[in-house]
Amino acid sequence: MDKTLSPAIETHELNLWYGTFQALYDVNLGIRHGIITSMIGPSGCGKSTFLRSVNRIVERLGYVRTSGRIEVLGHDIFAPEVELVQLRKDVGMVFQRPNPLPLSIRDNILFGYRLHHPEHRLGRDERDAIVEEALAEVELWASVKDRLERRATELTLEEQQKLCIARLLPVKPAVLLMDEPCSALDPQGTAAIEELLWELRGRYTILLVTHNMMQARRASDECIFMLLGRVVEHRPTAEMFVTPRHRETADYLEGRYG
Predict the structure, then answer these.
(1) pLDDT for 193
(2) What are the residues facing 206 on neighbouring strands?
(3) Could you give the C-alpha distances from 113 to 35, 100, 118, in angstroms and in order?
(4) Which of 35, 81, 176, 210 is in Cβ range 3.0-4.6 Å of 221 for a Cys bridge?
(5) Residue 79, SS3?
(6) What b/e sequence results for 161-180 when a residue is b if at least 16 CB atoms lie within 10 Å of its CB, and e otherwise?
(7) C-alpha 93: how far from its chain's center?
């Protein structure tokens, strides 16, 4: 069966609590393969909580409890046999602020591969190929190829964020989670990251959380609007912004709250 016929990410009656506070209510979503899906809504509506549930990173907080089901690539991520290391290999994540490791640009790219393939000693040609391919995929190779031994923290914020995306690619993720990836960038850097997302689209399923409604409109195929922990609307982005079906969506898009 063609995998694109089923969602890359699918949730069934997903609920989540931080202690006694319920943050997600009966979330039912199907996020399609190979497109960019944005999530919008007021602060505290559950966007980032949902994002961090997809690779179970939210569970690092010891007081989180969930019910319901999340499937990634057709597999229940809460199944007893699921290994979190493998899940987070398949589902990469980029955070609000760039977080390059305090290592060279080259070692940042190779870090994930070495972590997930400890038994494989890379030859120099293999290392070089992995580094060049990952950096080229995020359109960073031409500008950094002559300074691969420089510390990654010396790059501009835009370059650092591209590097953080590139760092995920050698382990061949299927899904990329983006949690406000442009919030620390200036307009030029934001435009560069949005352009990159369109370049990566098709090769990866991208789920983008953003507070910037214009970014959602520019940089996604489909859009999910959340409010108070619930999904209000999930539609093609162009349709949602022009003809929202729900009053709550229209009020948010028109700036009446949030």
Answers:
(1) 94
(2) 36, 176
(3) 25, 15, 8
(4) 35
(5) coil
(6) bbbbbbbbbbbebbbbbbbb
(7) 5
pTM of the model: 0.92
Let me know how long the chain is: 258
Tell me the C-alpha distance between 225 and 130, whole Å.
37
Give me the pLDDT at residue 113, please: 84
CA distance 163 to 231: 32
Give pLDDT tens digits for 98-125: 999 999 999 999 998 888 777 777 888 9
* CA gap 252, 249 in Å, rounded: 5
Residue 2 clears pLDDT 50, i.e. is over it: no
Distance from C-alpha of 87 to C-alpha of 190, rounded to nearest angstrom: 28
For 142, phi and psi rounded to 5 degrees? -60, -35
- β-bridge mates for residue 78, sequence order: none
User: What whole-number distance in Å separates Cα of residue 19 and Cα of residue 16?
Assistant: 9
Distance, CA of 156 to CA of 147 (rounded, Å): 13
- State the burial class of residue 59 (Cβ atoms within 10 Å of its Cβ: 0-12, 13-18, 19+): middle
Per-residue pLDDT at 79: 95
Q: Token match 């195929």: residue?
A: 221
